[in-house]
Amino acid sequence: MACTSTAGRDDDDKHTTPPGAAHTSRTPLNRVYIITSHLASPISPRFTAIMASEDSAAPVVVDDCRGVLLVYSDGAVVRRDGPSFATPVRDDGTVEWKDAEFDAPRGLGLRLYRPCQRNQLLPVFFYYHGGGFCIGSRTWPNCQNYCLRLAAELGAVVVAPDYRLAPENRLPAAIDDGAAALLWFASQAGPAGDTWLTEAADFTRVFISGDSAGGTIAHHLAVRFGSAAGRSELGNVRVRGYVQLMPFFGGTERTRSEAECPDDAFLNRPLNDRYWRLSLPPGATVDHPASNPFGPDSPALEAVELAPTLVVVGGRDILRDRAVDYAARLR
């Protein structure tokens, strides 16, 4: 679709589109943008999805993740369609995007972005959203804004996949979906690939990124595709680097930044623990390989050829110490 088109208005389709339909950006980009944050800030008011029943035997909420995800005592899961905060999508007309499916049986899609103006093949930047493996979507406005800005300012093709969420789909489901999205992208590098991608993307310059849980997915992809067998899975695709923004790692032993995290932090200890309890396999501890990259059963990294990795974390982030330790061990 041409970059002057106004088809697929975000306020009409609520940021979802049929696979293959292209869209263009329209309004000014934010100059200051937060993807997501674990830093101390007031907790958003809870979203009430179902009014409490007067019947004492009625199911009650046993887990509440920012009001976006409610888990009831009878096992029912209620999800809100969007985030607990209101954020408009801001475009400036320089980026076009479309949706595609990478796992049709599971209904999993991704959103592709590319600058309208380009005179050469562009590097590719994968972005996996955060949300403690329990909430989040490529269609959320904060994710959309970030990807629009990446495409415009980096001059890159941006790929933003969704993945299955917990507790309905516990780990390693999200990690497997992250790998499936990258393998789908690799399958597009051949003659039968989507021309929307092949005419814009340089498949030999791919970077994998994610924030929070998405950063954890990036780690697991680095391990899988850093092996000889993993690299062969990607064919002509070359991953040149990884960017982990506030990666969501865990462990049974508390770190100092976890122990000192204030209760009014946006991501505090109770919510941090809740995400792991809902996302890890039943009965697993936080030393599970999905959460602790250096746990007792986690794969050794010595035999893995890791691409250059940038780890970014806030100085007061609850997960600061784990990210610092992770970066130190990669050196």
Description of the structure:
- The protein is built from nine helices and eleven strands.
- It is α/β, with parallel strands linked by helices and 331 residues long.
- It has a single domain (10-34, 84-330), classed as Rossmann fold (3-Layer(aba) Sandwich), CATH 3.40.50.
- The strands form two sheets. An eight-stranded mixed sheet has the order 1-5-6-8-7-9-10-11. A three-stranded antiparallel sheet has the order 2-3-4, covered by helices on one side.
- Strand 2 and strand 3 (69-72) form a beta hairpin.
- Helix 3 crosses helix 5.
- It is globular, with a radius of gyration of 20 Å.
- The model is unreliable at 4-17, 22-36 and 39-54 (pLDDT under 50).
- InterPro entries: AB_hydrolase_3, AB_hydrolase_fold, Carboxylest/Gibb_receptor, Lipase_GDXG_put_SER_AS.
- Residues 1-25 are annotated as: Disordered.
- Residues 126-331 form the Alpha/beta hydrolase fold-3 domain.
- The active site is at residue 212.
- Pfam families: Abhydrolase_3 (PF07859).
CATH topology: Rossmann fold
Number of strands: 11
Q: End-to-end span in angstroms?
A: 44 Å
- Uncertain runs are 4-17, 22-36, 39-54
% residues in beta strands: 15-25%
The CATH H-level homologous superfamily = Alpha/Beta hydrolase fold, catalytic domain
Give me the side-by-side strand order of the main sheet.
1-5-6-8-7-9-10-11
Radius of gyration: 20 Å
How confident is the prediction overall: mean pLDDT? 87
Topology readout:
Blueprint: H1 10-13, E1 22-24, E2 61-65, E3 69-72, E4 77-79, E5 95-103, E6 108-115, E7 122-128, H2 141-155, E8 157-161, H3 173-187, H4 195-198, E9 201-211, H5 213-225, H6 228-233, E10 239-245, H7 256-259, H8 269-279, E11 309-312, H9 320-330
Parallel strand pairs: 7-8, 7-9, 9-10, 10-11
Antiparallel strand pairs: 1-5, 2-3, 3-4, 5-6, 6-8
Helix pairs in contact: 3-5
